[in-house]
Structures are given as structure tokens and as C-alpha cells.
Design brief:
- The chain has 274 residues and is α/β, with parallel strands linked by helices.
- It folds into two domains: 190 residues, Vaccinia Virus protein VP39 (Rossmann fold, 3-Layer(aba) Sandwich), CATH 3.40.50.150; 59 residues, no CATH class.
- 40% of the residues lie in helices and 20% in strands.
- The protein has eleven helices and nine strands.
- Strands 1, 2, 3, 4, 5, 6, 7, 8 and 9 form a nine-stranded mixed β-sheet that branches.
- Strand 2, helix 5 and strand 3 form a beta-alpha-beta unit.
- Helix 2 runs parallel beside helix 5 and helix 7 packs across helix 8.
- The radius of gyration is 19 Å and the shape is globular.
- The two termini are 36 Å apart.
- It binds S-adenosylmethionine.
Length: 274
């Protein structure tokens, strides 16, 4: 299913609009940039429901929040009344913006993983174009080498998550219904990934360093691009980015893959050299 449709769904955009926190790695990145942020013209790409807006709006010189899903932008406008800083825009075509416009682009919470390798390269080209020389790009991306990745697909894990989520999952009948739902999701994920041995499929993607997986996020309807730390560094380097730092789910800046692979996603901060 087209990811834009999923993100644009009223239920999903409202859910994103309720979020209002920063992850440890994001806090760490703000801390590192705190002396330069006041001078920065910032683009908060894939802003979703404005989770990061409240933090950055107050810190930077100028701020634009953009998203390709109109309902996400509508939620931002509701949340930040009087702030005319939101635009409906696709990162792959930012012709609305001139070259060298921004000092800092954030694409938080794995928005960049909404599409495959080719589009990811197009997005990087556009990001490079609208960034000033030396400008910063920060984002996070799904980690194909995450130690917990197999577990996302096990029946036990899917079932437990459904039980924990259900308010009325306590009696026998509701447990049985949840059981059937978990069976269905389990089969559905195998089907979506065209593999009845997900472990084998993940191992193959790990060898390739990247690839698409339908996990159970976004109701199991979206292909998510997963990549390894090494492949991500390679792609950024090839695209002209330098001074690349990575941060683990624990907010630790590191090159240690053991630490980075503790988390389902890895955070990055880098600078463009033009
Ligand atoms: C996982 S959500 C994260 C939202 C927000 N950044 C947050 O941290 O809560 C990813 C966001 O990226 C947006 N997105 C995905 N692909 C995009 C694209 N090609 N151009 C602009 N926005 C995009 C989606 O609409 C969605 O709002």
C-alpha cells in the first residue's frame, strides 16, 4: 500500500500529533548543536504531527516543517496555531526551495525509510541541493542488524503485544480472538515479505546490507527500508556527506556496532560538502 495514504489517514496523523517528546539521541544531537542552532535556518522534513516542532521552533533562527501527507500538516497547523511555518511537500521534489537555503535539515523518526533505495538517493540529492555548504543533516533509519529484529515476526511476540494493547483481552473469548488475529498477522507478514522463513529473509537482507521489510508497524501495510550502519555510511559518503556520527537508541555517539545494534533504528548527524 502507498505509504503516503497510510500516513495521511486521519487515525495515523492524529496519533502522530499526540507525540511530544525527544528521544535520547535527538537530545544528544541538540546538545551538540546548541551553540549554532540560533543561527540556523531549519527544515524539519517529514514533520508528521509536529513532535519535534515545539523544541526546534524556539531554538532556531527560522523554521519550516514539511510533510507530504496533507493531514499531518493539518494536524501541525491545529497544534501550533498562528505559526505559518508548515508546508505540504515531498522530500524528493523540493523545487519550491532554492539551492543553499538551509543550515539544518532534520528527517526524524525514519521518514526516509518510507521508500526504497532509488528514491532515497533522489531524496539525498534534494537534501544536498537545498543545504548550504557545511550544512547539517540529521535523521534516523531502521537497522537491519538490530538484535531484536527476528522477534518482531514471531507469533509469541505478536500475540503478547496484542494482549498488552487490548483493554478487554482478559477473558477466554477475547484471548481466542486475539489468538486468531495474531495467527492472521503472522501469516500476513510472511506473505508480504514473500517468505515463509522470515529469519532466512532477514539474514539475506543482512548479507546485502539493506532492503525492504514489511514489519508490523503502520498496521503491517507498509514496506520499510532497513539498512545497516555500514551501508548507510557508504551511501552518505557517496552522496557527499562528511563528519558522519551515529547514535544508538541509548543516545550514545559511537561507531561500535554492538552498541548501535541494540536498537531498531540508528540516528545520524552529518554535514554536506559541496
Ligand atoms: C514515522 S513518521 C515521523 C513523523 C515525525 N517526524 C515524528 O518524529 O513524529 C514519518 C513521516 O515522514 C513523512 N514522509 C514520508 N515520506 C515522505 C516524503 N517523501 N516527503 C515528505 N514527507 C515524508 C510521513 O508522512 C510521516 O509524517
Amino acid at each position: 500500500m502507498d505509504q503516503k495514504k497510510i500516513y495521511n489517514h486521519a487515525k495515523i496523523s492524529k496519533d502522530y500529533a499526540r507525540r511530544d517528546y525527544l528521544d535520547k539521541a535527538e537530545q544528544q544531537i541538540i546538545e551538540e548543536l546548541k551553540n549554532v542552532l540560533p543561527k540556523f535556518n531549519m527544515l524539519d522534513m517529514g514533520v508528521g504531527g509536529g513532535r519535534t516542532t515545539g523544541y526546534f521552533l524556539a531554538l532556531v533562527n527560522s523554521y519550516i516543517g514539511a510533510d507530504y501527507a496533507p493531514n499531518m500538516i493539518a494536524e501541525c497547523k491545529k497544534k501550533f496555531k498562528n505559526k505559518k511555518v508548515f508546508e505540504v511537500l515531498d522530500v524528493r521534489n523540493m523545487s519550491k526551495f532554492s539551492d543553499n537555503m538551509f543550515d539544518f535539515i532534520l528527517f526524524s523518526y525514519n521518514g526516509i525509510d518510507s521508500f526504497g533505495l532509488k528514491d532515497r538517493e533522489t531524496a539525498l540529492k534534494e537534501i544536498k541541493r537545498v543545504l548550504k555548504n557545511g550544512g547539517y543533516y540529521s535523521f534516523s533509519s531502521h537497522n537491519i542488524n538490530w538484535k531484536g529484529l527476528y522477534n518482531l515476526f514471531t507469533f509469541r511476540n505478536i500475540y503478547t503485544k496484542l494482549v498488552n494493547k487490548a483493554d478487554n483481552g482478559k477473558n477466554l473469548l477475547s484471548k481466542f480472538i486475539i489468538f486468531l488475529e495474531a495467527v492472521f498477522i503472522n501469516i500476513w507478514l510472511n506473505f508480504q515479505n514473500k517468505s515463509f522463513n522470515i529469519k532466512f529473509h532477514i539474514d539475506r537482507l543482512r548479507k546485502e546490507g539493506q532492503g525492504n521489510l514489511t514489519d508490523n508497524s503502520l498496521n503491517g501495510k507498509a514496506k520499510i527500508f532497513y539498512t545497516s550502519y555500514k551501508s548507510q555510511i557508504l551511501q552518505l559518503t557517496k552522496s557527499g556527506f562528511k563528519n558522519i556520527s551515529a547514535y544508538s537508541i541509548n543516545g550514545i555517539k559511537t561507531r561500535d556496532e554492538n552498541e548501535l545494534n541494540q536498537g531498531g533504528w540508528i540516528y545520524y548527524l552529518c554535514q554536506i560538502e559541496k
